[in-house]
Amino acid sequence: MASPDEKVDLTALAGEVQAACLARRLTLAAAESCTGGLIGHLLTEVPGSSGYFRGSLVVYADEAKTRLAGVPAELLAAHGAVSAQVARAMAAGARERFGTDLAVSVTGIAGPGGGSDAKPVGLTYLAMADASGCEVRRLQWPGDRAANKRSSARAALELILECLAAGPAPKP
Questions:
Q1: pLDDT per position as a tens digit, 26-76
Q2: Which domain holds residue 146?
Q3: What DSSP designation does 101 have?
Q4: Longest alpha-carbon distance in the chain
Q5: DSSP per-residue letters across 106-145
Q6: Confidence of residue 18 (pLDDT cuts 50, 70, 90)
Q7: d(Cα 46, Cα 120) in Å, to the nearest integer?
Q8: Is residue 80, in this structure, part of any structural domain at all?
Q9: Per the structure, how many domains does the chain have?
Q10: pLDDT band at residue 4, thresholds of 50, 70 and 90?
């Protein structure tokens, strides 16, 4: 379980995302697998989040990734659910389905089981999609399930802020 300070810190980070999106008049959506809705939860902990945040797809099962986020089944078969390719497709799918300027996605192996030599517990891929394309990051967390989920959510919020700092330009 997250400490009170850690929860406040993650909520404060979500507040920074909100301020940056509202200042640029940009909308945001998410597609979440291993975080199970934690990103959406954190974003909506901040009053006023409806001004920019449109929603989050919690697509834990492969079937949900395909049906709800539009991830091609062939992509899942070729690369597995925990891959850069699937993270990219999840972000693009969320952006398209919600009609937003931006979308973030996360897919990973939270643990304690499910890992392999090729894809160990803690392996996580994040993606951020906007009109110009999609950035993907590969991360590896050392914690238990709860810590890995929180680390992934934190990294997703930080990725949003980094991408906003680099562009896109505010909407008129």
A1: 999 999 999 999 999 999 999 999 999 999 999 999 999 999 999 999 999
A2: 4-166
A3: S
A4: 49
A5: EEE--SSS---SSS-TTEEEEEEEETTEEEEEEEE--S-H
A6: very high
A7: 33
A8: yes
A9: 1
A10: very low
Whether 9 maps to a domain, the answer reads yes
Q: What is the pLDDT of residues 107-161, one digit of tens each?
A: 999 998 888 888 999 999 999 999 998 899 999 999 999 999 999 999 999 999 9
Question: What CATH number does residue 102 fall under?
Answer: 3.90.950.20
27 sits in the region (left: phi over 0; alpha: psi -120 to 50; else beta) called beta
